[in-house]
Amino acid sequence: MSEKRSGCLTAVVIVAFLVSIILNVAFIAGRSSKIVRASMQPSAADAFTEEVVVPASGADTGKRIAIIALRGVISSAEPGQVTESALEDLLMELKQAREDRSVGAILLRIDSPGGEVTASDILYQQVLKARAVKPVVVSMESVAASGGYYVACAGSFVFAHETTITASIGVIMQSVNYQNLLGKVGVEVNTFKSGVFKDLLNGARELTEAEREYVQGLIDQSYSRFVGIVAKERHLDEASLRTGVADGRIVSGVDALKEKLIDDLGGFDEALEKARELAGTPGAAAVRYSSPMAFGRLIRLLSEAPAKNTRVQLDLGGKVDSRLPSGRLYFMSSMLVP
After folding, report:
1. Which of 180, 228, 272, 286 is exposed most, by the fewest CB atoms within 10 A?
2. What percent of the chain has pLDDT over 70?
3. Which of the four pLDDT bands, split at 50, 70 and 90, describes residue 36?
4. Which residues are within 8 A (CB) of 112 and not within 5 positions of it... i.e. 6 or more apart?
5. Cα distance between residue 218 and residue 220, in whole Å
6. Selected catalytic residue, list 34, 193, 198, 258
7. What range defines the domain where residue 234 resides?
8. Average pLDDT, whole number, for the chain?
9. Catalytically annotated residue among 112, 120, 146, 303
10. Domains in the chain: how many in total?
């Protein structure tokens, strides 16, 4: 009987110990989550560690080429490794490379179909800041279209593969009209609003002519900025762009070179050599940044309560990408997003 009691007591102690560990982890996770959220702009010097991708060859000059990758949809909604968004992570990488005097040049690899207008412009501005300090060589990979090309325009020198899909210079905003569907199932939407444009793009009714003009005005405004940047950075005539390649079409790397949207054809190796050349550091090692906060990120994820899957989602088509928040303008090529 005493052995049974001893066994039960041991089990209780073990359970209590495990519960204690769980509670402590939850407490630490909560504090860690608050710290991460409160520190969206940590010191760039402490943000990332370096990993050698290409070793130095020849005499060591002490300079390095920093490789930074822009991959996937450009969106402030995409989760990051260090901060809460991948966009913020990328900005921190650019800042770290820009401020590090031992980095002779930046090699920006782009594989993106585009994304949010504002996020793309923020990235463009930060690449410009880096370019003002040191060379930034852009290497386009499979896709560098729309917002991806927008960011690439800030580079000191732009490469693309012959088969790269790029350009798609334009702005898109879509909505779905399901008014007829609601009528078939007997659903009526009642809307109370403070102004005529408050329920803009309401799919339960037809757009008014004033709404169409207003939305088109927003599109034209962002498009003018995009075309203006391409004209300025690529030294091209804006009027010719508007009537030519800047009509939203996608082009291959070969055609992009003909249209002077890029500087040369080539891949990673050619881009690295150009970065070394512009930095005046032949044979310099190439490094990429990695996050030293993997454990901290795990703690943060553990601290976030999983959202209950209580939504009923109906895909009616017409959206650029179901992962992207609605109601925003996008530099995006819809044909490049599955």
Report:
1. 180
2. 72
3. very low
4. 70, 71, 72, 73, 74, 143, 144, 145, 147, 148, 151
5. 5
6. 198
7. 43-304+315-336
8. 82
9. 146
10. 1
